[in-house]
Amino acid sequence: MKGAQAWRLGSMGDMQILPGSRHRPPLKRPIWIISLVSLVCLFLVCAYIYPPQGSAACYVFSSRGCKVLTNWLPPSPTRELSDEEIASQVVIRDILSNPPVQSKNPKIAFMFLTPSSLPFEKLWDMFFRGHEGKFSVYVHASKGKPVHVSRYFLNRDIRSDEVVWGKISMVDAEKRLLAHALQDTDNQHFVLLSESCVPLHNFDYIYNYLMHANMSFVDCFLDPGPHGNGRYSEHMLPEVEKKDFRKGAQWFSMRRQHALIVMADSLYYSRFRDYCKVNLILNCSSIYSNMLCFEFTTSFDLWMSFSHALSLEFGVELQLCSVSAHFSLIMMIDPGGIANWSVTHVDWSERKWHPKSYKAQDVTQDLLNNITSIDLSIHVTSEAKSERLVQPCLWNGIKRPCYLFARKFYPETVDKLMTLLNF
């Protein structure tokens, strides 16, 4: 009993010394809530100003920068595609997705587009000599049967037809060359050259440059001026939209997959064939847009002079719808597949309707060194305030000289070029 009483007393004593109920100041709880709400608001404001980029945030709240979920969803088509467009996209997609044909003896197809005989055949003979089995030659002579002086060009003429600058016949000739070259499965790279083109390097250098490149070299750039997007025609809709319009150079070098796409296309080709015509009103231009990029440089010097005279005298501009170039490649489907510059140099610095031509007295070692050292691609737009678009020539991501060939050399320069180049 004494123990029990002692326990109770001890307990009571303990209870007596315990402090009474604590009275918190009345403002403690509201401050805590206000602080928490302020932190949440601050977090939301920061998230709005600096949108989260992670995919997890997409499921928490929406933001301007959170595009992971929308990118995952299939894009909503802006319009219903025609049967021809669907078929074209299917073919192009399959060509790009399939690995290229492997060859034990990969070759470059050199395709010459010329009126008749090639004035630099002796130079090309020196260039090809000793590299048999690594190249193929194809000649499309549109006006007269060429006379060959090199064994590499004998029996290499293909069936040719008339070619008119600024007409669809130019495209037909280029496709004809590609069709013949594609029959040889060893041909892995395809280079289009004119009768005034010359090589700037020896064969091994050009072979390695092209065969080990992970892209096609097709010139293509956006020109918002009157001689670029100003030549766009709505007759090309819906397949060719103005936002996809491009300008570029005719002389391409492309991989086998891209050459196959050019041959497989009929949809975009037909739009230019049917609607691209010389007219007194603004018509179309030579761009294979949505998917393919066309060039519209031309050699119509007389036509351009006439057009310029009309413009000065009467304020009328004749718009030349030139399809005298080749389709480049798939700007939308394979945007990383082209280099956006041509490996064939041509000098437009004189700002005339035709590029600079080189005579014998112009051909020096300094000229060749200057051309072969250029490592920047420069395009000039046709706006009133001409804008220079400059980009480095990136070969597989590495900055390298741009040009393997050059054009607009007079026939009289052949002997001097052979001496200076000395392959």
UniProtKB/TrEMBL annotation:
GO terms for cellular component: membrane. It is found in: Membrane. The chain crosses the membrane at residues 31-50. GO terms for molecular function: glycosyltransferase activity. InterPro entries: BC10-like, Glyco_trans_14. It comes from the Eukaryota. The keyword ATP-binding does not apply. Keywords: Glycoprotein, Glycosyltransferase, Membrane, Transferase, Transmembrane, Transmembrane helix. It holds the Pfam family Branch. The keyword Transmembrane helix applies. Its main location: membrane. It is a single-pass type II membrane protein. This is Advillin. It comes from Gossypium australe.
